[in-house]
Amino acid sequence: MNIFISGFSLQMDSRQLENLFTPFGSVTTSKVIMDKETGRSRGFGFVEMPDAIAATEAMSKLNGKVIEGKALSVNEARPKDNNSGRNNFR
């Protein structure tokens, strides 16, 4: 299950994000999304967990949890919408 996490500290890296989820089960991947221009964290990322039950428990327990003074928002990731509101006129 792919999980979307937002609202975390800009200092959090992918390893720290993974460490938040490992108490609930195996983590396949974790990724903090970085700004392409500045190379700094954008404050959100994704974690992939192969066990849906463990992932659901992690989402339940971590959603709203305060880490470094910031409340996490943790939800199942939705597929990227190709029509994200941007005009694709040429």
Automatic annotation (TrEMBL):
UniProt domain RRM: residue ranges: 1-79
GO molecular function: RNA binding
SUPFAM superfamilies in the record: RNA-binding domain, RBD (SSF54928)
Keywords: RNA-binding
Pfam families, per the entry: RRM_1 (PF00076)
Name of the protein described by the UniProt record: RNA-binding protein
Source species of the chain: Ilyomonas limi
